[in-house]
Specification:
single chain; 5-stranded antiparallel beta sheet; 11 strands; binds zinc ion
């Protein structure tokens, strides 16, 4: 098993909780979960949400990297790197993604509710929604339980996530915090080892 210690950084404002998100092919959702050690609530991105985004990011760039995904190879899912990594009906996949927990501090926005949604003015009410600040970091891990020959598509998925839209509110950067330790473990990657270098530091940097 190969363990990637992964950090995600929000590059926009991400709504915490709120109405159930409409699940599109690409969405990062943020919930509030209780940290049992500290007895506080922290913004959390569910692992399933991260996994879904990795899958769709891989599909987006698969062609350019010569990676086989279902759309191109409608045979058994054995032939599809995306199904192999992230699972398919009847198979679990070789990638496991933890929940990602963020920093406690958030910003809130107070709204005035002016109508009942149908455009008719009713009683005015104030309500607040909560957002994760740009630059907030979420920590989690991604574990890989498959053959080294199919590890490259996973790194490609992580790299592609950095330039994909996440939710309605912006982008997410991704960094492999333990890239230095993995360099030896992943030495069989050949030309793809450049992806490990690429993913070891933030892609999005402050402007100069
Ligand atoms: Zn597939």
């Amino acid at each position: 098993m190969i363990r990637f210690d992964v950090e995600l950084k929000s590059l926009g404002l991400f709504l915490v909780g709120g109405p159930t998100p409409i699940y599109t092919h690409l969405d990062i959702t943020v919930h509030r979960t209780r940290d049992p050690d500290k007895n506080v609530y922290v913004p959390t991105i569910p692992g399933s949400s991260v996994k879904g985004v990795l899958r769709s990011s891989l599909s987006r760039v698969a062609h350019a990297f010569g990676i086989k995904v279902c759309g191109d190879w409608p045979q058994a899912s054995d032939d599809c790197d995306s199904c192999y990594l992230f699972g398919a009906p009847g198979s679990e996949g070789r990638v496991w993604v933890s929940d990602f927990t963020g920093e406690r501090s958030t910003v809130s926005l107070t709204h005035v509710s002016l109508d009942d949604g149908a455009g008719t003015a009713r009683e005015m009410a104030l309500y607040t929604s909560e957002y994760v600040k740009p630059g907030s970091i979420f920590k989690g891990r991604i574990e890989y339980n498959g053959g080294v020959e199919r590890l490259a598509p996973l790194l490609v998925a992580m790299a592609a996530l950095r330039t994909d839209r996440a939710g309605r509110s912006g982008l997410i950067d991704l960094r492999i915090a333990n890239a230095d330790q993995l360099r030896g473990v992943l030495s069989g990657l050949g030309e793809y080892s450049i992806l490990l270098e690429y993913l070891g530091v933030w892609a999005w940097d402050e402007g100069v």
